[in-house]
Specification:
eight-stranded mixed beta sheet, three-stranded antiparallel beta sheet, 11 strands
């Protein structure tokens, strides 16, 4: 093993030693094509100590880009969360009806993440945004899927918010619920908000909500 510095620099956080050209894709096979797609890739890549890996296979769950937004009423200091059935949580103690952020997939129509976010807000919560603040974008689980989440904080009026929303054409049955912010923060690490977009959005909101209330 070669000697490496124990402490990396700020540049190491921003720039990678290896990039796309350091991956050699041998073949791509579509192994499932339904509501989602699954590909099987044969590939090899460069190694940190030099040379190339052996050729190996990986399955990739193809989801593409999505948007997600945490709903916050700065006047009332309240948080809006939607509740809906999620098949992936069916074996969890708090599943399969999760409390989560408003979210949706981006298609190929040319809409910006902001435009998709505003459309999903109306469809899933029946609300209009007062303001939209970009938080970050991140890969939800890069070991197995290409999904990129564009995450926002959405300031909106939650004084009369609630009810059931969603599109019948997409079999959506979505209930909007409104909570006091402190109640959500107290329960967010051990309750039904146990999904990445919601937790990241809530933690960002907890750190930044005072400036949103100005």
């Amino acid at each position: 093993m070669k000697d490496t510095p124990l402490l990396s620099t700020t540049m190491d956080l921003q720039q990678a030693d290896f990039v796309s050209k350091d991956l050699e894709l041998k073949s791509t096979e579509l192994v499932y094509d339904g509501f989602f797609k699954m590909q099987r890739l044969s590939l090899r890549h460069r190694l940190f100590e030099g040379g190339w890996s052996d050729e190996f296979k990986r399955e990739l769950f193809c989801r593409g880009d999505a948007v997600a937004g945490i709903l916050y009423d700065p006047a009332l200091d309240r948080i809006g969360l939607i509740e809906q059935f999620r098949i992936g949580a069916h074996g969890q103690d708090h599943g399969p009806w999760c409390l989560e952020v408003v979210a949706g997939m981006m298609d190929k129509s040319g809409e910006s993440p902001e435009e998709v976010m505003l459309r999903e807000l109306e469809e899933e919560a029946g609300l209009d945004a007062i303001s939209l603040t970009f938080i970050c974008k991140y890969l939800s689980s890069p070991g197995g899927t290409d999904e990129m989440i564009h995450l926002f904080a959405i300031s909106c009026d939650l004084s009369q918010a609630g009810g059931v929303h969603g599109l019948d054409s997409e079999n959506e049955d979505i209930r909007l619920r409104v909570f006091e912010a402190e109640d959500v923060f107290a329960a967010m690490l051990n309750g039904r908000t146990n999904n990445a977009a919601t937790l990241i959005g809530l933690q960002w909101l907890q750190a930044n909500r005072e400036r949103l209330r100005l």
